[in-house]
Amino acid sequence: MSEDRVPVALGARSYEVAIGRGLLANSGRHIASLQNAPSSVAVVTDENVRAAHLDRLLSALDAVNIRCRTVAVIPPGEASKSITVYADVMEQLLGSGLERRDAVVALGGGVVGDLAGLVAATLRRGAPLIQIATSLLAQVDSSVGGKTGINSRSHGKNLIGAFHQPSLVLCDIDALETLPIRQLRAGYAEVAKYGLLGDADFFEWLDENRDRLTAKDPAALQRAVRRSVEMKAEIVGRDETEQGERALLNLGHTFGHALEAWAGYSDGLLHGEAVAIGMTLAFRLSEELDLAPPQSAARVAGHLRAMNLPTRISDIPGSARPVPEQLFELMRQDKKVVSGQMTLILARAIGEAFITRDVTPDRLQAFLRHALDS
Ligand SMILES: NC(=O)c1ccc[n+]([C@@H]2O[C@H](COP(=O)([O-])OP(=O)(O)OC[C@H]3O[C@@H](n4cnc5c(N)ncnc54)[C@H](O)[C@@H]3O)[C@@H](O)[C@H]2O)c1
Ligand SMILES: [Zn+2]
Fold first, then answer.
1. Residue 370 CA from chain centroid, whole number
2. In angstroms, rounded to a whole number, what is the distance separating the alpha carbons of residues 98 and 104?
3. How confident is the model at residue 101 (pLDDT cuts 50, 70, 90)?
4. What pTM did the predictor assign?
5. Are 23 and 57 spatial neighbours (Cβ–Cβ below 8 Å)?
């Protein structure tokens, strides 16, 4: 199967996302053929990805005479999106003699991409960034679109950040071979999200190809990644800084973020798992408000369950349960509250999400009360 290339059209900041097999081994050539190809790079990766994939990147750079000045290796996991790790990586890169025209290469999942992205955005007021996405979530979501950032120790996720578009994104389908299956499934929740928010035919296709996707069939994964990236690129191309339409990408996320915060961003509930529950809740609420036809939520839940994802709050492991008031408060604290009004993404049908500020706090609290019972 040949490689796909999806353009992200953002004027002077346009770039391409290449999706295919063996891209990591060919990454040197891709980087060398950029318009302002760097002569040196610094690589940021995490310990897991280093063990599985770093050698291939280094040989590929070597083959085209791009010098790798340094490799910053961070501990895997969300905790690395911190000011401390940001400072360490920045010092290491500056100490390696990296110059403003040299590129920062993020090799990893969303944690590496978000952190390295912020380092690139701020290194000497902005250095080129190349994303080599190795998790499914990073391939379909975090590597595309230019959001970078780290977490505040006491105030929440992604509160310290910048928009900084990459110059190139590589999504090597073969890299997913080493991705733990639970991470693959969690990333898959974001793939399903694209179908649910704007492409019912894609959702149908995903539903028909469930087994191929969980078996990591490369052709099926490539098609799923390509369509997801196309949709993200289209939305970002129309609304780069989330003034409007880009908020559709938050389908399931207001509920999901509240659940993640409640679970303490622990391994007990991965982001994609929280989003799977959140999307199901968004369709249930849409149905209850007579916006979406009956059975929509059941279809969404049926599909996600078949992919081994949780769909109910009671599916979260452990015996502790959030109380409705707690979840409501966490939803209000999510950054999508504009002048006190909560923005929700609801749906008129599968493939037809929309943004609304019309759900009253009372209605939402009533919904949360019975959502927690079932
Ligand atoms: N910038 C954005 O637009 C955006 C969008 C969505 C999510 N995010 C962020 O992305 C992060 C989550 O990303 P993630 O799910 O990729 O998490 P992650 O980067 O922590 O990766 C998940 C785990 O998989 C491992 N891993 C990654 N690729 C691997 C591979 N090929 N083989 C073996 N192991 C591999 C990692 O080491 C890690 O342990 C969150 O911090 C979230 O806020 C950002
Ligand atoms: Zn997400």
1. 29
2. 9
3. confident
4. 0.96
5. no
- Packing angle, helices 181-198 and 218-238, rounded to 10: 50
Q: Are 139 and 174 in contact (CB under 8 A)?
A: no
Burial of 44 (0-12, 13-18, 19+ CB in 10 A): buried
* Residue nearest atom 21 of ligand 1, based on CA coordinates: 109
Name the β-bridge partners of 171.
Answer: 19, 133
What one-character-per-residue DSSP string does 200-232 give?
A: HHHHHHHHHTHHHHHTT-HHHHHHHHHHHHHHH
Residue type, 252: G
pLDDT tens readout for residues 14-58 = 999 999 999 999 999 999 999 999 999 999 999 999 999 999 999
Give the active site residue among 21, 30, 246, 336.
Answer: 246
Q: Is beta strand 103-108 parallel, antiparallel or unpaired with respect to 67-74?
A: unpaired
| pLDDT (tens digit per residue) in 134-157 | 999 999 999 999 999 999 998 888
Q: Which of 257, 284, 303, 336 is catalytic?
A: 257
DSSP characters over 254-318: HHHHHHHHHTTS-TTS-HHHHHHHHHHHHHHHHHHTTSS-TTHHHHHHHHHHHTT---SGGGSSS
